[in-house]
């Protein structure tokens, strides 16, 4: 804020003497104060923007309440981010500092998974041949790995260990400590490199959907010296996790691009590039000291939400009726790339099958019989990559039979499957709305969301005419 403007307003303002800067203010104090004021204004502008967008919509009678449903990691939060990016981009961008920390946590988590895979490999190698588990005919249960780690690999592993402390710092920063919400927040366990792989795979930091974690996080970011676009990233703070991360940048790149490590990961069936919050291909940018997340980065960031959707199996209970009372539409997300994966909470259940069953329970629910349901067959990009890299759809979805293992055929099959359930299990006649989506692609997603909103607004108007 220019100083001239500030002193001009001070003159006519009867309260000015209360808010006026202290006479003894030093240059540094003044700079800090002005930055704090500018920061406060930017945040307040962002809030105003959000409120006025809602007011405009309310005036036009265009508020449509949409409830997002789908299994964990289906893309609900990412879809919500797309809505926010469309309607209140300033508010979206005002949260970059928080998302930067989430992305850093995502990076560290990916590295931890690799380090654990290394440790697992070492542990296996250390088991003497005669002590290895065998089948009834005496052959080993898993053939011994021919991958040999070099001293360089082990040095790399040692040098990356400080990242595990960074993870703890980030988790602490992102957790609403003392908020009374901690019980709803699952903390990742303290790092333990010698543990078997899989111990941490299903543990993620999670935030409650009704809790403003970003607000808490931003308040934690004290001593702001550097800021941009309404955000507050303190790059120069000695406890900025970005420091250790950037110091480890080269080693992380070396680890991720090492052919032996890649082979080891594939031997253990770990496909980091298909997981949420994958940034290892952009380390040079993301792990740099002055890293600022782009819109795309924010859409790719992964932070688990605890909230309404967690209660999906109780949806039939009448107690849930109020939730749906004023909901104009349900947006159901099914991550169709998950055809070869199992649920984290139950490894015996195929994730695609789980989505299909959940879809069936939603469309057949009597409470929702009059609600419009829109289906997003999501993560099309990952599905394409998987099919192209040779993963066979029919190996996991037996009923697919010997149809071609390509996008056209699999997507057609899936769409028909979901449509059929919709038709057979809807208690009332209703339209089947279905889109193939990659909700991490903001441009493509916004087209679909605009189209969706138009449809729903039109539909609601039509319904209110009928009622009137
Ligand atoms: N490549 C790709 N990644 C996606 C897509 N949709 C979502 N993701 C990523 O998948 C991860 C999970 O998405 P979320 O939006 O957090 O999933 P969610 O449904 O909110 O999950 P919970 O909060 O656990 O219920 C995030 O890292 C997203 O960026 C997609 O279409 N393509
Ligand atoms: Mg979520």
UniProtKB/TrEMBL annotation:
Keyword presence, Lipid biosynthesis: no
Q: What are the alphabetically sorted keywords of the record?
A: GTP-binding, Magnesium, Metal-binding, Nucleotide-binding, Transducer
Listed under GO cellular component are: cytoplasm; heterotrimeric G-protein complex
Q: Specify where the region named Disordered lies, as residue ranges.
A: 1-32
Single GO molecular function: G protein-coupled receptor binding
Q: Residues that bind Mg(2+), according to the entry?
A: 305
Q: Which residues bind GTP?
A: 299-305, 378-381
A UniProt-annotated Pfam family: G-alpha
A single GO BP term for this record reads: adenylate cyclase-modulating G protein-coupled receptor signaling pathway
Please state what the protein is called.
Guanine nucleotide-binding protein alpha-4 subunit
Source species of the chain: Steccherinum ochraceum
